[in-house]
Write a structure and sequence with these properties.
Layout lengths: L21 E16 L2 E16 L3 E5 L6 H8 L7 E10 L11 H7 L4 E4 L13 H13 L3 H14 L16 H13 L5 E5 L7 H18 L2 E5 L3 H7 L2 E6 L2 E7 H6 L4 H8 L38 H5 L5 E4 L2 E3 L23 H4 L5
Helix pairs in contact: 5-6
The protein binds adenosine-5'-triphosphate, iron/sulfur cluster and magnesium ion (MG).
The site of adenosine-5'-triphosphate has 16 residues, from strand 1, strand 2 and helix 1.
Length: 368
């Protein structure tokens, strides 16, 4: 593991960023919650023009404050879109598919779930059925995908549990008999049993205390490496990202505002919002109080004009209020959307272009 220059005891960037081929390519993705209450239409732009690539074998971390759209982005790339969420535009391409995710019919989608694409949802440890033993959950999730008879299926389950340092006796337990950390380990074992090419994980360690969190992170990393899969990992906790992510994308108000290898984000954040996230981390021996970000998180039904961060940004200029900055490549692997970060950053040509878009999820019948 590489050591960071930071003094807060965290290790930054567990691995050098891999240079592998894309495992997931997302282009200009927009997903909005479209609601009608008492005749009033509301459009919450939770994912608004996001483009990113996750490479083979890497863990791509996505960070940002609560309600910035992290879970919505994951739902959209996992094709777990239900009303009132609707995909407005853009594309989602996995390397293991020969077409856009949203061009798949429901049968094909169902065939790739768990087998090739696993989604550990926010609060997923609670998806274990409380009245069924863990053994039955493995049957429900994985039996039909693995194409094995019952005996070899359970031999494969036992082998998988062993690889992940879980006792086979966990299969006989009911979820309420397990600690939070153990339930989360079981959920990760379930999500990886079919050896999926791509794993999506939403806040898998948030409800756990720090020691258990460390063990679960080690388990996630181990499972990902054993399978050789790629991973999109969401948490608002930057210290968790420091310990697991190869690269980091920073989201603010439905948009990606910065992206870089994890070590570079911590050593040299370019966007003022990223700089705030990094500066607010506790450091060993530091006594002074951390400044909180002034102002409130933006309302995504009526986001600020121009750069969405401008009402809270200490560096805001006139142009920031008028035009949204494009996410711009400053160096290989380094993208930022901030006029103050570089003169290369110009207004985005696509940011506000939404009129006339089709609601693709409804059109292709993906809304479940
Ligand atoms: N069903 C819904 N209907 C309308 N708006 C929604 C719905 N679900 C989420 N939102 C809104 O979409 C925005 C993004 O929510 P999302 O859950 O994606 O954020 P998040 O970054 O995952 O937050 P957290 O860190 O708290 O999990 C928020 O403004 C939220 O209020
Ligand atoms: S574009 Fe302007 S408002 Fe936005 S982060 Fe940069 S300096 Fe601040
Ligand atoms: Mg969330």
């Amino acid at each position: 593991m590489r050591q960071s220059g930071r003094d807060n005891g965290s290790t930054v960037g567990p691995h050098p960023p891999p240079e592998g081929a894309p495992a997931l390519s997302v282009d200009n993705l927009r997903a909005y919650y479209l609601t009608h209450y008492f005749g009033v239409e509301r459009e919450v732009r939770a994912v608004d023009d996001i483009s990113l690539v996750v490479r083979r074998n890497e863990i791509y971390g996505l960070a940002g404050e609560s309600s910035c759209g992290k879970t919505t982005f994951l739902k959209t790339v996992a094709a777990a879109v239900r009303p009132p969420l609707s995909v407005i535009g853009g594309s989602v391409q996995y390397a293991f598919l020969d077409r856009d995710l949203y061009a798949l019919n429901p049968a094909k989608l169902s065939a790739i779930r768990w087998r090739r694409l696993s989604y550990i949802t926010q609060g997923s440890m609670n998806v274990l059925n409380p009245v069924r033993r863990v053994r039955e959950s493995f049957i429900d999730f994985a039996y039909r995908h693995m194409g094995l008879k019952r005996r070899p299926f359970f031999a494969a389950v036992n082998e998988h549990l062993q690889r992940l340092h879980l006792a086979a006796s966990v299969l006989d337990a009911y979820p309420h008999e397990l600690s939070g950390g153990m339930k989360q380990r079981v959920t990760i074992a379930l999500a990886t049993i079919c050896r999926p090419e791509f794993i999506i994980a939403d806040e898998p360690t948030t409800a756990l205390d720090v020691i258990v969190q460390k063990d679960v992170l080690a388990m996630i990393r181990e499972a990902q490496q054993q399978i050789g899969s790629s991973m999109l990992f969401v948490t608002h906790d930057m210290t968790v990202h420091a310990n697991i992510a190869d690269r980091l994308g920073i989201m603010y108000a439905g948009r990606l505002v910065e992206e870089a290898p994890t070590a570079d984000i911590f050593a040299n954040p370019k966007h003022p919002y990223t700089a705030h996230l990094v500066a607010s981390l506790p450091r060993i021996g530091e006594q002074s109080r951390k400044e909180s970000l002034s102002g409130a998180p933006p309302n995504l039904a009526n986001p600020p004009s121009g750069c969405r961060f401008h009402p809270r940004c200490p560096l805001a200029m006139e142009v920031c209020r008028e035009a949204s900055p494009a996410l711009t490549t400053l160096a290989p692997g380094r993208r930022v959307a901030c006029y103050a970060a570089s003169p290369l950053v110009k207004p985005s040509p696509t940011a506000e272009r939404v009129a006339g878009a089709t609601h693709r999820a409804e059109r292709v019948g993906l809304v479940q």
